[in-house]
Every structure is written in structure tokens, then in C-alpha cells.
Amino acid sequence: MTGEGTFCLVLHSHLPWLPHHGSWPVGEEWLYQAWAHSYLPVVDLLRRFAAEGRRDVLTLGVTPVLAAQLDDPYALRAFHEWLGHWQLRTVQAGTLWREDPLLRELAAAEYRTATRSLEDFETRWRHGFSPVLRSLVDSGVVELLGGPYAHPFQPLLQPRVRSFMLRGGLADTELRIGHRPAGIWAPECGYAPGMEEDYAAAGVRRFLVDGPSLHGDTAFARPVGSTDVLCFGRDLEVTYRVWSPRAGYPGHANYRDFHTWAHEVGLKPSRVTGKQVEPADKAPYDPALAADTLRAHVKDFVETVVSRLRELRSLHGREALVVAAYDTELFGHWWHEGPAWLEGVLRALPEAGVRVTTLQGAVSAGLVGAPVELPASSWGSGKDWRVWDGEQVADMVADNAALQQRLLALPRAETRDRVADWAVGEATMALSSDWAFMVTKDSAADYARRRAAVHTARFDELASLIGRGPLPPSVERWAREDNPFGQLDARQL
Predict the structure, then answer these.
(1) What is the C-alpha separation between 100 and 102, in angstroms, rounded?
(2) Which tens digit of pLDDT belongs to each residue from 51-95?
């Protein structure tokens, strides 16, 4: 190894709470697609790396709300059925596409993938994600990041609410995995000055920010303020090579098109072909063309990382760090070839002289710089708070501020009260950052507003019933079924 420098890949796994809420335009289908096409193959990759004896391969963030879904009995049963239906759809596709060689082979390949996925789920995932994830953490192949309950935009939370949600989220991960994360991918990379003190109090030692928060100086982890809590900045020059607001590898003409469906079988038969090409005019997907393109993109990314590390070494006079960070769902769900690209890069970088490790591994290697004062920031548009605190969502911000006041005014009980627990759980869901994001980005905005309003109304209904005896059966049913955090204790608020 020539010692070019250190590379950290960070994956962030998150979806809003979807079970029992199938009214979104894609409903629970969204969860099951990500589960089948991202979580299963990425876990399989990490399991194979662990079997090879590889350690500290990447840093993996799993939000508590996603972990709850992947452990949820309802979701496990429904996903098992979904996998079976996927397999049946591939059989139907093979019949409908038998006259076209490319499409016929695509249906056969999809059948093989669906069959493997079904077998993998039935043998390794029967008891949910937590046992699977714990094995990866125990093996040392990944460093696990946690986060607060329900993915809130933390800068807009009252200090007590913020502390409660952070401590509760970390405790939830510890309960499921047996490890309390020492690092987090803060929801939306949202930061307000002083939050490092919250992190230190909660035992968080490391967190991510977006590169512009550090004015692009992302070559080292840096203590924040007067604390020993370290921030790591995404290197956007490298990260955007793969996925940016405007371009990136997944949009190449030879890759499988995410948006074009053969609705009669529920499969995606086309390649991107061209950005201005109408779906009906797109060419059939050709795995050989995609594989050639993938090899070129692995090579390009490795060369980009090596070049960047050499540039940083020249600038700083010592070994430096590159952090590339993405949503896990990019690999397989959004980008069909993503898992294969991921494996190619993680194998090729060490061969090019780059140390591949975790955030903790980078700290252990001494890649820590001088303290910094961070500005208010996020990884959203403008790198400020406009997505979650802008004019389009001003009413939601006001509603959430009022909800927090009512939440903090709940009566304090000496003994645990499940109705209070359920009420607080509904409040955490109402405060999810996903709803404002979807409104600002005009992505199922009506659904997002409805979900925020439903959770707020449910909080108010449950709050009014605290200490008043048995719940009405209808309330008891949805309060029990739709609460993702069964261990949440309102007395900790």
C-alpha cells in the first residue's frame, strides 16, 4: 500500500414511518422496494466482507424509526408477501416478454434475484433487522451511527424535547442492537450552535455536517467549540461525483431507469437511454452495457478519491481524510447497479493505496484537526434551514412549536402510563423532518401535511385521555399498532 490517505464511506438509512399508512401515493410499496433492493443486498455485501475477515469497512447510520419498521411484525409479514408477489410478477414477465431476448433475460434475472431475496429473508431476517444488524456490529465490519426518535429537524426543537428525543433514540438502538452508538448522522445534518453540548451530554462523540459548514475544509475531523465532540464534513467534490442535485453516475444512459415501469408486471424494463427520451421510447435494459459502464465508474471514482487525497496531502503536509456520504437507498433502490458499484469501490480503493475505514477508524488514525465554530446549517437547499423553516412550511413550523408547548405541559406521573407514552410517541412522529421536506420539495405534499396533522390530532386526543381509565377500543387499536417505539417512556421527557 502506498499510503495515499484515508477514505470513509458513510451510509444513512432512513424512511419515514409507513406501516399502517398505505395512503401515500406509493404507500408501503416504498418501504418494501427499499428493503428488497437496498437493505437486503447491502447487508449481504457486508456479511460477505465480514466472512472474509474485513473490519471497519464503512460507517452505517440506521435511524430508530427505520429500525422500528424493519422489526415490526406487521411489516415483516407484509414484506414476506411482497417478496412472493415480486417472484410471481417475474414469472408473468417471462411469459409476456418471451419474444424479446433482452427483456426475456431481464425477467429471468429478476426471477433469480427475487428467489434469492425470498430465501435470504426467510433464513436470516425472520426475526427482523436487529439481529442481522447486531451481527454486523459485533463482527466489526461496520461502525453504527444512531439518531433521535422519529428523525426530527433538531434545531427547531425545544431543548428539553431535543434532549429527550436524542437520548431516547440512542437508547432505542441500544435496546435493539446491544450497542449504544457513539456517533450520529443528525437528521438532515441539521445543526445549531451549541448542539455539541447536547451531544456531549448524551454521550455522542462524533456527528456529520455538510462540507460547506466547514467552508469545504473537510480533510480532518474537528472538535466543535470547547468540547471534544468531533464533526466530520462531507467532501462534496468527491460525494457529488456519484450523486449531486444535478448529475452523477446513476443518470448514465446505460443504467436501469428508475422511473419507467412496465405496469402490467410492476418491473422496470428500460435503460435511461437519454434524459429527454420519453418512457415509451426508451431502449430495453442491457446488463452487459450497464456492467461496462459500472467498471468505468468504479475506476473513475477511485481515481477521483486518490487525486483528492493527494491534493489534500500537498495542501496540509500530512495524510488527510475524504468522507463520502449517501443515503443507503441510493444503492439498489434509486440506482439498480449501486450495490455492485459499492462492492467494486470498496475492493478497488485498498488496491489503489487508500485506507478504507470508519469515522472511528479515522480518529484512531489521528486524522483530527483544530477546533471549529460551526454555523447554523443543514445539508438541504442552500445548506441552511430553508427546507424545514422556510415560507412554504411556516404554518407547520408554528404548529410544531405549539405542539411542543403542549407536549412539555403534560402532567408528570410517578408511575409509567402507557397512554402518556403513546401520546408522546405521536408527538415525535408529528415532529418528523420528513413532512416539511416533502412539502418544500413538493413531493407528496398533501400526504405529508395530512400525516403531520393526523399525528398532532392523535397526540391531543391521547393527552386528553391520560388518567381517565380504559381507552375506547378504536383508540386503543391504533395507539397500539401505530406506535413504533414500544419502550418510549414519557416520564423521561
Answers:
(1) 6
(2) 999 999 999 999 999 999 999 998 999 999 999 999 999 999 999
CATH fourth-level superfamily of 5-364: Glycoside hydrolase 38, N terminal domain (3.20.110.10)
Q: Where are the domains of the chain?
A: 5-364, 390-492
CATH superfamily for domain 390-492:
Families 57/38 glycoside transferase, middle domain (1.20.1430.10)
Choosing from 72, 120, 188, 434, the catalytic residue is: 188
Confidence band of 23 (pLDDT split at 50, 70, 90): very low
The pLDDT value given to residue 274: 95
Nearest by Cα to 154 from 169, 142, 166: 166
Q: Which of 28, 172, 257, 327 is catalytic?
A: 327
Which cell numbers hold the place of 190?
441539521
Give 49-71 as a DSSP string: HHHTT--S-EEEEE-HHHHHHHH
Q: Is 358 left (phi over 0), alpha (psi -120 to 50) or beta?
A: beta
* Of 26 and 359, the one with more pLDDT: 359
Distance between CA atoms of 274 and 136, rounded to whole angstroms? 39
| pLDDT the model gives residue 370 | 97
CB 228 within 8 A of CB 200: yes
Tens of pLDDT, residues 296-308? 999 999 999 999 9
Give catalytic status of residue 319 as yes or no. Answer: no
> In the annotation, is 329 catalytic?
no
